[in-house]
Design brief:
The chain has a nine-stranded mixed beta sheet with strand order 2-1-3-4-9-5-6-7-8, with no helix packed on it. The protein is 21% helix and 28% strand. α1 crosses α3 and α2 crosses α3. β5 and β6 form a beta hairpin. It is of the alpha+beta class and 202 residues long.
């Protein structure tokens, strides 16, 4: 398998059209078609980084430098808190009152205390994250450009934004154009983690 075939495989697996994927990384649908046909031999490293984040894989796997390990029925899992994003209150950050949990592989997390999961309830990050998606979050306040950060809003709702840079300012970007950008420091909430995995039922 070459890189183009891998991009196509991962795009389809994640339920994205060529147009949707292109919009996210800032290229036209025709460029994604060329990627998938192997007509572009030197895809920009910035695009590879973004694609890796979207598909939750390593750049080396995307470029077909390494292959995933075979799944084993003995794969270890741990339980982390799960919030449905409709019953969160001011004690959310303590997480000692959560009644629901979800299992994730220890390949993602070793310490359950460092992670939680929640359900997406709006379309602000569509088509990357859509309503009823479940995202796995690592708790941390630091982040990098192109990370998907999770914000605990002052109205007790969890939301996701992408970190981008505009001139000398860091912005929190919704993927859906119907929503507005926010500068870091002006949001009515607190950045509490970054998205590490997406779980979606088809």
């Amino acid at each position: 398998m070459d890189m183009g075939q891998r991009i196509k495989e991962l795009r389809i697996k994640n339920g994205l059209t060529q147009e949707e994927l292109g919009k996210y990384i800032g290229v036209q649908k025709s460029a994604i078609r060329k990627y998938e046909k192997g007509e572009v031999k030197n895809i920009k490293s910035s695009s590879i980084k973004i694609l890796s984040k979207i598909f939750n894989i390593s750049p080396s796997y995307l470029m077909c430098i390494d292959e995933p390990k075979e799944n084993s029925s003995n794969t270890s899992v741990i339980s982390i808190p799960f919030f449905n994003n409709s019953n969160i209150d001011s004690t959310f950050l303590l997480q000692d009152h959560c009644q629901e949990t979800i299992e994730i592989s220890t390949d993602i997390a070793i310490n359950a205390k460092d992670f939680f999961a929640f359900k997406v309830i709006d379309d602000s990050m569509s088509p990357i994250f859509i309503e009823n998606d479940i995202v796995i979050v690592k708790k941390q306040s630091n982040f990098e450009l192109d990370d998907f950060v999770v914000i605990f809003m002052n109205n007790n709702i969890l939301t996701i934004r992408k970190v981008i840079k505009a001139s000398t300012t860091l912005l929190l970007k919704p993927i859906n154009d119907k929503y507005t950008y926010n500068e870091i420091g002006t949001i009515s909430g607190k950045i509490i983690g970054i998205v590490k995995q997406l779980k979606r039922d088809f």
